[in-house]
Amino acid sequence: MVFVFPRDEEITQEVVTDFIEQHKALIPEYQYNYDMYLGKHEILTQDAKERYKPDNRIVANYAKYTVDTTEGYFIGVPVKVTHEDETLNGFINDFRNRSNMADVESEVSKLAAIFDHAFVYLYQDEFADTYAVENSPLDMFIVYDDTIAQKPLFAVRYFYDADDELQGELMTETHRYVLASNKDGITIGDEQPHYYGDVPVVEYVQNSETQAVFENVKTLINALNKALSEKANDLEYFADSYIKILGAELDEESLETLRDNRIINFAGDGTDKLTVDFMTKPSADELQENLIDRLIDLIYQLSMTANMNDTAFAGNLSGVAMEFKLQGMKNMAIMKERKFQASMNRMYKMLFNLPTNVPASAKDEWRNIRYQFSRNIPRNLENEAETMAKMEGILSKETQISVSSLVDNVAEELERIEKENEAPPTYDFQLEGE
């Protein structure tokens, strides 16, 4: 859901309260997704069976598998962010190191995969240094204006304290406001100006449809949990099968002896009419196995997640074969990369708008920032070296170096190469007596 509000109308406490109530209505679905990721699936809370029946609750956490696998592939290798200007590139590196952006981007990407979107929140510390931190949609939302561009109008972060009173903050394009609640409702309190030139909260989305990465396989995962649990129940049932004795009457002592010694010995007349066997119910083992296999296959197919236990991955796949096996995840990663790059552009635009970060004359240089996303797959360094060698004299040195998965920062690597290529210093000196 996209929250929209007219840009020319005032943002009052009634407006903020209304959007908070709309957001709270979405929290159960967010929490359901988060519980699935944590392994708290429906099978664990279903009604208990009768006491005498086996009641196994098995969770096959494919929700976590799909998230961790796709996210490891998409952003397991940190994004390379560079600028051709050395000074601006230095600021970018300082900011990324200070905020540990590799971890922030990894976490916000994982949150987007779970909830369908997530946020990065910008703030200044007491030394006027800019920081960024990830935030889930469980306690934060953005409201956009009603124009065709749907630009951010304001954002809200809120929580409830020990007294069940709302606390939080409202962020507009120019100010931050303290939010609090009392008997009269939510109040908008103290304000503090900021100079980002935009709402200092950036939304990162999983895809255009704003669907979690396992959204299409939730019912399949729940069905798989049920099938596995019922299969375990059947195994337990057979292990505790009832013994059937027809044609003989046993007293309590005989029953205890039979149970403890597990020996049956009947003698006398009429033993030919005696029946001793186990009561069993029809076995559906083959049907269960087929259902389980079908559900697992559908989970991989519909979530477009590679099965890393596939025997094909155990062999020495060629680069082309590997690409085909990972094509589904690659398609999702490409679409997500475009969404993330747009969000990163907005974040760096705000960073460059602060004169304490970059000179005012360079505030539009965020347009020249380059982002390099690398898929986290096994790398063949020998092939990379051959490719780089073939680029010599055809492409720039920067493009040539960017091929290597060993290089995290191309600009820094170019500087190191330049220093190594510098001629050794010469000294003009004379020996004494000359």
Structure write-up:
The protein has 434 residues and is an alpha+beta fold. The chain folds into 3 domains: 3-205, no CATH class; 216-303, no CATH class; 382-422, no CATH class. Helices cover 42% and strands 17% of the residues. A 6-stranded mixed β-sheet has the order 1-5-6-7-8-9, covered by helices on one side. Strands 4-3-10 form a 3-stranded antiparallel β-sheet. A two-stranded antiparallel ribbon has the order 2-13. Helix 2 runs antiparallel to helix 4 (101-115) and helix 5 packs antiparallel against helix 7 (285-303). The radius of gyration is 32 Å and the shape is flat.
Short structural description:
The protein has about 425 residues and is of the alpha+beta class. The protein has 12 helices and 13 strands. The strands form 4 sheets. A 6-stranded mixed β-sheet has the order 1-5-6-7-8-9, covered by helices on one side. A 3-stranded antiparallel β-sheet has the order 4-3-10. The protein has a two-stranded antiparallel sheet with strand order 2-13.
